[in-house]
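Weekly puzzle thread! Below is a chain. First person to post its structure in token form gets bragging rights.
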Amino acid sequence: MKQLAANTLIILICSLPVYGQRPTTPAAGGKDEAQTITVERQALTLQDPARYRTAISLQAARRVVVTAQMSGVVANVYQELGQDVKAQEELVRLDQRERQLELDEKQALYLLAVATANSGASPAENEPRTAAAKAALDLAKLRYEATQIRSPLAGKIINVAVQEGDYVQAGSPIMTVVDASTLTTLIPVERSATKAGDKMTVQVEGQGVEAKVNAILPPPPEMESLRDLYVSLAAASVSIDNSAGKLAVGQSVLSEMIPRHPIAEVPNQSIINATEGQRKVQVIRDGFVRDLTIQLLGNVGDTHVYVSARFQAGDELIASSSTPLTDGTWLRPKLAVLEGATGRGKVDSRSRNSDDDPNF
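Winning reply:
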């Protein structure tokens, strides 16, 4: 646990505007007023959020890669990328000439077998012969129909893998069709706080969408790094009703458990309520107080928590203060001010505005 250092600092409240504060009236004699406060501050050890980032997106609950059932040359491609199709609608047709000849042959042999059976020959001979001819005809029909590659479901085509003239092997991918009426995704959760059947709000590109937790699963490899920040990490498989078609496959999902900015471990007492239900911490940056909205992550014991915010190298966390501080307040060590007042040190006592500081 990091050591907190109590430092006595002084605020110069001057007649010129200070960023984040209203101008104040100068004290008698035109001198700046100063207020002495006690601030507990600590250095921050920042972690790069890049190692925790993982891409999360919406996927269709039903997704089928349509493949060729037999080898052949692609004769016709009937559907295009992004097109909506109905169930059993034809997507692609292979060259049918060989299969058509085979079908004609088996049809003729079947008719011959039937005619022979009707000529008065022994039933013991005719029935097996007719059955074999019928089976051969059915097989020829099945192979002929296999040249017509159809969609097994109603949906949208998101990938076309062939074009007319291509030779495809049996099992080769032809098109990918998705049914986007129900969407799904996998997001990190804390196992102790989530269970199957729960409802939750998922952030999809800036909008909150209601989702249902279908299952709690072990986190996939790309989420394993988050174990550094959370004691009980899991992954929730969630589904979203998209029957209205307002969402699309591939849209980005934002998880509050994945940090977006540098990460630091801070004491719970340093976290302050902000507007609209948000939380913030305050840091000292180049001598000024800065308010930083935070993203709460995992707890570190009972006294500390990981947070993500727009921290910068050199920031000092304000763990506590004897007086509430506003964003933009200029803080100076009391000793430096006293030395300036007695002439033992050169101290610039003019008011500064954070907007004028190029390093702010």
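Puzzle host: Confirmed. Bonus trivia for everyone else. The chain is about 15% helix and 40% strand.
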